[in-house]
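hey m, so remember when u said the tokens were messed up on ur end? i reran from scratch. heres the input so u can diff it against urs
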Amino acid sequence: MNFAFTEDQDLIQDAARGWLGEFAGPAHARKVMATAEGYDRALWAEAVALGWTGLIVPEDQGGLGLGFVELAILMEEMGRALYPSPFEATVVLAANALMALGTPRYLEAIAGGGITATLAAGNATGKITAAPTEGGFRLDGMLRHVPDGARADLLLVAADLDGRTALFAIEGDVAGLSRTGLATMDQIRRPAELRFDTVHLPAEALIAADAGRGLALALDRAAVVLAAFAVGAAERCLEMTVDYTKERVQFGRPVASFQAVKHQCADMALAVETSRSAAYWAACVADDSGHNGDGTALALAASGAKSWCARSYFDCAAAAIQLHGGVGFTWEYDVHLYFKNARALEAVLGDGTCHRERVARLIGLDDAAEAAQ
């Protein structure tokens, strides 16, 4: 079987790596992490001009109409660069959710860079309830760990409406809604806490009254793309470690010449390659998921890729810290940025335990456990 990228996909990868290599990277991340917004608006405008925000948006909505393999390619390169931006929340979560639900609302604005957005669902902790009112709805409750929740122009909020999961759109700030950024170890992402205290929304704010299945599809696709991000970041950890151990001299010889070091780097390389295979297989399944099967194949591929790739990324980042020695923890070296990011990424859209339990259930091990009781 041929698992190579197409010519067009190679062009996407080359262009993304070139642009991110020139304008982004850990040095850029350090600079914007110290700002209140957490990203560079001018650089974001350039990313919009490159068409990245419209990558998976249909052409009739102003996008490029590409798929999740192409999105995975772009996210892998963003992982290599640790590029801080609203891309993950706006495209990977919000635009993806709107497409999964079959609604064109806001897609043209997202593709054109007119708004940033996020999805308040997935692994956000807490619960929002919605109740019908005269002319609209009332939302109450709290959600934590909402990606870009404090700065996004558009909030897509999942809420319980009469026992079903409904999705609402909130533009800007509204009365009764408070958005508070959360301080975390990883400053590349900016999660927030959202509190809804009798928030009144008009009827047209309802995107979908029964959004459960569509959101499940969107979140699986998002998990696949996050796995690709982990692949790029893990590979960059490997590259930095190989470069450092070649230069670092101990006992009159490069550290890279010691067998134990070589074997650890070999383990890192194996983790990267197996992760890449898992992520891109899952991306292929994600491209078929909208019109093929009941979602089980995607659920298996997404959970397998997310758990494996996120853990491999963390293992590579931890090995990079170890093989850099004491300097690995210092601010001057970049590996600690990847280590913190890896630890945070493991929990985004479900941690490894959650996804492995899901895989076990999908392959029928729950039935075996019940039979043994």
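this time it looks ok to me. The two ends are 43 Å apart (CA to CA). if urs says something different then somethings off w ur setup not the seq
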